[in-house]
Amino acid sequence: MDASVSPERPRKRRAINACTTCRASKVRCDGSRPCQRCARNNTDCVYYDGAKDPTLMRVEKLEAEVNALKTGLEEAIDVSRRELLPRTPISSHTNVSPEGGSTLQPNLPVGTITNQAFSGYAVSLPNLAHGLPSTLVMNATGTTCNAVEKGLISWEQASFWYQSFFSGSHYLVPIFSERTDTFESVLSRNAFLFDAIVTIGCRAEEGVSSSLHHRLQSRLREHLTNILITMDTPSVEVVQAITIMAGYSENGFVLIALALRFAIQLGLPNSVDQLIAKPLQRSGDVSVEDQDLYRLARIWHGVCNLELFFSLDGGKLPGINLRTSSRKIRALIQHPEFTSVDLRLLSQLELNIIRNNAYVNIVNHHGASILPENESLLRSTVQDTVIELSLWLEEWTIIISSKSKDQAGSLALLNIHIQYEWALITLHLKALSVSGIENIAIMKDFQRDMVRTAKEAAARHLHHLLEETSSSPPSPESSNTRRDQGRPAYLTTFKWTMDYVWAKCAFSVLLVLKLALLLRDPLPSVMLLLQDAHKVLESLKRIAIGHIAYFQILQTSIEKCESALREYMAQQEGNSTGLDPSRVGEERSAEDDFHGYAPSEFVFEWDFPGLNLKSMPLGWHDLFLDLDSVF
DNA sequence: TAAATCGGATCTTAAATGCT
DNA sequence: GCATTTAAGATCCGATTTAC
Fold this sequence. Notes:
Elements: H1 20-25, H2 36-41, H3 53-84, E1 95-96, E2 102-103, H4 124-127, H5 134-142, H6 155-172, H7 183-189, H8 191-206, H9 211-230, H10 236-247, H11 252-265, H12 268-277, H13 288-313, H14 326-331, H15 340-365, H16 372-403, H17 407-434, H18 445-465, H19 489-492, H20 499-518, H21 523-543, H22 549-572, H23 581-597, H24 600-605, H25 619-625
Antiparallel strand pairs: 1-2
Helix pairs in contact: 5-9, 6-8, 8-9, 8-10, 10-11, 10-13, 11-13, 12-13, 13-15, 15-16, 15-17, 16-17, 17-18, 18-20, 18-21, 20-21, 20-22, 21-22, 22-23, 22-25, 23-25
The protein binds a DNA duplex through residues 11-12, 14-18, 22-29, 41, 51.
């Protein structure tokens, strides 16, 4: 066959590797050494040994580079260790001696609380020694500066907002000791904690939607991210900072779980055991060791308390077994370190333990279909819990009255009443939801009783929300001023309050209206409740700074309830024979609006029994619109 | 006219993607 | 697990240019 004639001339097989001269000339190379062409031209026939050569060379170069960096990093860590370890712990455990100097942290009992639980020790850097690239080390050190040093805010702003936090927020996140957690102390100990406190202060003063607050919040996220990436074991200050974030964040559930995990990792539960096991010192002389133990126990209780709140009101059982009891909690009341903040914390903790036990009993012992024997078990669980709650209220009223007689005391008393009513509301509605109630028309008597008890508690709750500041002069500790007198004392503190407390407040007000309608309360009493709901709204309007979603929910819902009632009364007067279809359209659109602005956690996260939107198959619209069937 | 040059077609290989 | 596609890089065909 003539190759030149063939339409598909078979190509000669290529050389696997052409020599450098053939390659440069773009001509066929036969691959021999020397190749025919080089031999003929009498030139040097040079081949690259393998096409991957340059790649291999690059890999070898990079490996050498990595080894050099590793050596450099290890040397740097050695130097840092030598520089940092002799440093003494500062501030939080530093006691100011009469001479004005500082005393050092004493030796702690071996094996109880790790040194890492205390600030001031070089805890983070050695943890980085294993296998983290140098870039991460750089990032970790990048967040050691606070928002002021970063240039986000001024020192004046930081100082003002720091003070604001300790004027109200410290009652809601009771994990601080005002004596030791001073501005200077926190500033020197931990930038994350410092920024967290300042951020919440800024939130209270400037509003949640202010640009400064947004900027500070993103700074907190930066701190948190870096800690998650770089630290094996964070410090107690980090636990405090994450707890603050949890309280004021949409992702509170997740954050408090994180704080809890870190707290356990640091051995905080042990500090409570140790503290309680120690013989009580009644004198004012408390060792630094005891002060620290008490401080750590307070932080642990604060974190657990928030976790309990989130779990109980989020419809989940708590993720931890607290291993404590009322007796252990009350033992702490006698401790010399006990403060007014602890009055709130410990009473709430005890209450939440009672609530938790009740929920566990209710959920575990009662299935979806309620049998007669289950019904009596459910009723006795509820009755027992009601007695526990009454005892709790009575005993803590005595404790608070004896400990604190000033404005802070009266606010604490008001607070435990509100907590008590809240516990009653949720207890009865939880039991009701477990007993499988769908429709009020087919309710059994005991279920109807539960709804009635819940409504009465909700009505008392509403009245407590509106209780005014007493005329006694404000104490330095209390945030109340002459300006606040005559205003609802509890709502005045809402400037500092957390999202979930806002949610609870909005829920309780809506609930009382809903239950009053379900129970067919007489129209005048519903109108009175509506008036009170309006007062709550008016008070909150003066307090709320910036956009607060729960305020919007409350406002819209009350307006809808009012307009529905007005319409109902107009019908009664014979002015209308039926509902105007255009009005119905308006209501529908308002309902859509509601779904648009309702925070997702109000709809999906919180499991407030009774008014969760999931349990309203007829919709928001029908609740306040179809009053004719109610009255 | 032989040798050199070089645009670009073709081939090889590895990774990505799709299919059963 | 196998087939196909895709992409990158290497080879070298063949038209053109250059040197003698």
